[in-house]
Amino acid sequence: MDTECIAQALDGLSEVQRRRILMLAGGMSVNEIARMEGVHHSVVSETISAARKRFKKFF
After folding, report:
1. CB atoms within 10 A of CB 2
2. pLDDT tens-place string over residues 2-59
3. Is 33:24 a contact under the CB 8 Å cutoff?
4. Alpha helices, DSSP H only, in 1-59?
5. What is the pTM of this model?
């Protein structure tokens, strides 16, 4: 994949979406992210799902 395209796609995400998708890509689970941020795992799942949809528009 083209690094520039990935960077552009990440720039299209909100700060929260970007942070959570990068943590997920870094190997953290949804539950770990939720615990770290003090939110319910369903909130993290919804954010990541929305980020994936927005990210896919670039590819």
Report:
1. 9
2. 888 888 889 999 999 999 999 999 999 999 999 999 999 999 999 999 999 988 887 7
3. yes
4. 3-11, 15-25, 30-37, 41-56
5. 0.85
